Amino acid sequence: MVDLDKIISLCKRRGFIFQGSEQYGGLQGTWDYGPLGVELKNNVKKAWWRYNVYERDDMEGLDSSILLNRLVLKYSGHEATFSDPMVDCRKCKKRFRADQVDPNEKCSEGGTHDLTEPRPFNLMFKTTYGPVADENNIAYLRPETAQGIFINFKNVLDSTNRKLPFGIAQIGKSFRNEITPKNFIFRVREFEQMEIEYFVMPGEDEKCHQEWVEARKNWYIRYGIKPENIRLYNQKKEELAHYAKATVDIHYRFFPERPEEDKQFDEVEGVANRTDFDLSCHTKGGKLVLADGREFPNTDATNKLTYFDPKTNQHLLPYVIEPSCGVDRATLAFMMDAYCEEEVKEGDTRVVLKLHPALAPIKVAVLPLKKNNEDIKSTAHKIKKILLGSGFRTVYDDTAGIGKLYRRQDEVGTPFCVTVDFQTLEDNTVTVRDRDTMAQERVAIDDLKEYIAKRIGHND
Ligand code: GAP
User: Fold this and answer.
1) Which one of 89, 146, 270, 313 has the fewest beta carbons within 10 angstroms of its own beta carbon?
2) Ligand 1 centroid – CA 358 distance (Å)
């Protein structure tokens, strides 16, 4: 398997991902997705939405605000508890997450670190809204998309007339002032999440939780992750958030270079049974109860977030199952799993990203076999136009010999290379080269659109 360094180098070289604010020395924990990266990331999000929203009939979508009224995060518990314990080194003045620093590590100022006692550090980004920047105008950049879903539960319920069970899906940016952003796009300060809050009758939650764990694991496999690189991790009782009844994390083998197999895996997604904690915090007259017993009766909410159960004629607070996935981590996992170095023949190795065709940033490259033949070139341009018109991201390239052109496309995961040659001019057929097998097939230009749609497996 590939390690992160090779992926980082490919990402920069081919325009997938660049350091954020690089022009000015960078801004730690931020990354910019370039021309190919944005396509890949968009395709990951599309594949998620397709699988979790369009292929089911029990889901609605939402796109809620990034800026949140501070009360949302007061009653969610984030203001009081969304923090990591942090230590400072008195010698080098660097700051570390207490659970991630080795006190015996060498300090740049000599000897080992001289660490302070751990202190909580709130991870939320605070800002102010409106023309006056004071305490009364504080807002937060959301640290998860989930809270936007909880506070809109009633709006969605009333506007759609859904009955339990049903879910709300949302994709969007989240912000956390991580103390030590690291490992490329694995731990960053600005990232995207794909979250579902699935509302069920209390009592049906455990079965539903298991179903979501299976469904979510299968999504990764459907879009190309090898099953041996995915693991399910059942959080132990002492690891669970105080409100969670159970959480199963989906781990991916992000760090294959680590000698101990257990340490190679880390979280790409968490699937939690959050009980009715969130709705009971945010509902009018409800109450937030923290792990340490502190209570915050909700005197500010404007609506009851209850569900009327027609069977029992009662209003109740549904339980919530929450599959919460990081877009950036999922994108990284798909890239890492797809990356191969293959010896084509002795001394000749190709790099190929064997991405699922639906995720590939470019679907088709149209390549003229001879760049000095005007008929071949103009036919290639015509084919490109047809494919673009059909909605496939298509490129044309004639800046090198055909072998090199193929390799360029392999490296960025383009599943199909359409080559226009002399035979094309005679019988209107082209060769379609398969990225993974390198096998070539002769296809009529008239059939190309259908052929590619079928191979991608989606019609979007
Ligand atoms: N609403 C639940 C929630 O936010 P989480 O485990 O804190 O749960 C869910 O986050 C997912 O979001 C993680 O599994 C991970 O993929 C992603 N994520 C969280 N923090 C991240 C960070 N700093 N950088 C990149 N992705 C992150």
Assistant:
1) 313
2) 24
> Within 13 A of 424's CA, how many CA atoms are on the CB side?
28
Cβ within 8 Å of residue 444, ≥6 positions away: 428, 429
Nearest by Cα to 140 from 132, 130, 131, 129? 129
pTM of full prediction above 0.90: yes
Q: Atom 14 of ligand 1 has which residue's CA nearest to it? A: 269
Number of H helices, E strands in the chain: 14, 26
Name the DSSP class of 164: S
Handedness of CA 38, 56, 227, 326 (dihedral sign): positive
Could you tell me whether strands 138-141 and 67-69 are parallel, antiparallel, or unpaired per DSSP bridges?
antiparallel
Q: Which two tokens stand for residue 72?
A: 């949302």
Of 416, 404, 394, 427, which is closest to residue 348 (Cα–Cα)?
A: 404
pLDDT on residue 215: 98
- pLDDT the model gives residue 83: 81
For 368-404, b/e burial (b = at least 16 CB within 10 A) is bbebebeebbebbeebbeebeebebbbbbbbeeebee
Ligand 1: residues within 6 Å at CB? Answer: 144, 146, 176, 178, 187-188, 191, 193, 195, 267-270, 322, 324-326, 328-329
pLDDT at 7: 97
- Report the atom number in ligand 1 closest to the C-alpha of 187: 24
At position 88, the amino acid (one-letter code) is: D
Task: Assess whether pLDDT exceeds 90 at residue 459.
Answer: no
Report DSSP state, residue 70.
H
